[in-house]
Structures are given as C-alpha cells and as structure tokens.
Design goal:
α1 (11-20) packs across α9 (293-306), α4 (77-86) runs parallel beside α5 and α5 (101-114) packs antiparallel against α10 (315-334). The longest helix has 20 residues, at 315-334. The protein is of the alpha/beta class and 341 residues long. Helices cover 33% and strands 26% of the residues.
Length: 341
C-alpha cells in the first residue's frame, strides 16, 4: 500500500482523494496540503482520514509518506516535482505536466537522478475504449490512418472568479487547452506518435474573465496523418475523439470533468456512446463501460512505484507533450504554423 499526500485540495484534488478513499488496496491518501483552511475542507479531511497541513515541505520531510500527488497550478509543477524527487518521494503530477519543454526535461531528469517513479494524470489512456482503439490501429483494422479529431467543451470558465488561478492567462493559456485539451493531444501522441507542427487560433467570446474561451488547433504528425482539436470553456460539456482510417472510422463520445458535477460522474462517465463505421458495412454503435479512470490511473502509478508494471505514459512522451503545449501557445501568439522542437 502506497501512502500518499494530496497537494492542492481544490475540487479536482478532492476528486482524486474520493476515487481511492476506502476502495483501493494499492494507494491511499494520508495527508493533504492546502494553503488555507476552511470548515468544508476540514470536514473533507476528517471524512477521508487525512492530516491537513499547510506546508509542502512538511509532507516531503515525513518518512511515513511514500508519494505526493500534485493537483496544483500548472506553472509550479516542475519545481514541485524536483523538490519531491530531492526528498526521495515518488510523484504523480496532474496534467499538464509543464507549460514548457525545458521545465518538463528538468523535472524528468530530477526523478531519474533520484530513482523515483513519475506519474502523469492522462487517465483517458486507461479507458477500455482507448485500449480497443489503440489495438484497432495497431492491427490495421482501420487501415492507413488519415486524421484524428477531437472536441472538448465545458462551461466552467463562465463561473470563474477573476482572482481564481484558472482565470490567469499565464496558468491557462489558450483557454481550454490546459484544463481539457491536453487530454486529446496526449491521445493523439499515444495513438499516432509525435506531433511535428501546429497551428492555433485562440480568443475570448463570452466569458467575463480575461481568458480565452474558444480555441482550435491543427496538427501534422511526424508519421504523416493530420489532427484537429477544438476546446471551448463557455458552452455545454462534452467530449468526442475520432480516428479516421482508410478502412473506416471510430468515434468515441462522452463528457469532460465539469466542476460541480457529482464526483462519481466526473470519474466514470468520461466515455459514453461509441461508433465504428467501416468503409463497407453498417454502422456499429455501443455504450462504453463506466470505468473509474481516476482511480485506475492512481493505481497504475502505485503499480509503477511497486515495480509491478511501468506507468502508462513514458517520460519521453511527457516531455513531448509539454513541447506540443508550448508550441500551441507560441502559434496562437504568432498566428503562424510552428514546428514542435
């Protein structure tokens, strides 16, 4: 059993705790780090048996804690990973791993030097429908892959307070890219390999805070296929991921992590109706299994700590994902096609 501390106890940090509380025999949370206390937060820690502390260094110095799980602002991830590695703690980081490639490289190097396990919260890789799609591509069932396409939307930015960290352009450049879109970018990297070049347009249409709410991205993969991703943070919540091949296409639908929705719904309903349309033959439709992918990714991290099986995202793909994120932001500013380096 891995004893972990949750660092950052907002709505998503609490969701991570809820996913394994009282139900996992591989990882448990024993402490939580929050900058300030409140009655609801203290009630939450009592309910789930957590010690509430306000200093990250305190959990890093605690010999009873094996790992830290970071649900903190994106810009501090790299420094916090480096600090955890220096303290000999395994570290699981919520996405995005870093906003710049150099930061990701520094964090990975620190964990490798310390010999600790690094995990990253791309939980959608573990859903059975993504596993099936990966196998269809690998077996050639979809033929030559032509294009990947995704849409990720939620209304969360309509309700952001101006002083919320997620309302900051520095923390969440390109609107829905960092809270949602990086999941789809990771899916494209997982299924189609590295991304070679990017074009992005991003702007604000409806939200009150100074943040983009409408973002679209075009990709060209090194293997030759194309990709498209749209994120919107001021409309109804939804998710779709589609792969087109010369023998047919697969479309996966579902939902995004909407703040305020029930925790179980956020964890288990990310995938819903699925479709396969071959070039010849009828359309096939089915409903995805309800799988708690938040619990699954934390338990996969625990398995990697124990040496049972490797983590689902290789560190080279963590670094490449950060490089793609950096390039998307660069393209939105330059209004040009940008190479991923």
């Amino acid at each position: 059993m891995i004893n972990a501390a949750i660092v950052g106890m907002g709505w998503w940090g609490q969701t991570l705790v809820e996913s394994v509380s009282g139900s996992s025999n591989r990882i448990r949370f024993v402490a939580g780090v929050a900058r300030r206390a409140s009655e609801p937060l203290e009630a939450f820690t009592r309910e789930h048996g957590l010690a509430l502390v306000h200093d990250y260094d305190e959990v890093l110095a605690d010999p009873k804690i094996d790992a830290v799980v970071l649900a903190t602002p994106h810009s501090v991830h790299a420094d916090q990973v480096v600090a955890a590695a220096g303290a000999g703690k395994h570290v699981f980081c919520e996405k995005p791993f870093a906003l710049r490639k150099a930061s990701a490289e520094r964090a990975v190097a620190a964990t490798e030097k310390a010999g600790v396990t690094l995990g990253l919260g791309y939980n959608r890789r573990l859903h059975p429908e993504m596993t099936k799609l990966r196998e269809q591509i690998g077996s050639g069932e979809l033929g030559e892959i032509l294009h990947c396409e995704a849409n990720m939307t939620f209304p969360n930015a309509l309700y952001l307070a101006p002083d919320a960290w997620r309302a900051s352009r520095d923390e969440t450049p390109c609107g829905g890219l960092t809270p949602m879109g990086v999941h789809a970018v990771d899916g494209m990297i997982d299924l189609c390999g590295e991304i070679d070049e990017v074009y992005c347009q991003s702007f604000r249409r409806a939200v009150a805070v100074d943040a983009d709410d409408t973002t679209s991205m075009l990709f060209r993969m090194k293997a030759g296929m194309s990709g498209y991703l749209a994120t919107m943070t001021a409309t109804g919540g939804g998710f779709s991921f589609q792969v087109f091949g010369s023998k047919g296409f697969v479309r996966l639908e579902g939902m995004t992590h909407i703040a305020g929705a029930p925790s179980e719904e956020r964890r288990k309903r990310c995938f819903g109706t699925c479709y396969f349309k071959p070039v010849k033959g009828p359309l096939k439709t089915w409903e995805a299994d309800q799988v708690d992918i938040v619990k699954a990714v934390l338990e996969r991290f625990a398995d990697a700590v124990d040496g049972t099986q490797p983590f689902i995202v290789p560190t080279r793909e963590m670094i490449h994902g950060a490089a793609v994120t950096e390039t998307i932001v660069k393209s939105a500013a330059s209004h040009q096609i940008e190479k991923v380096v």
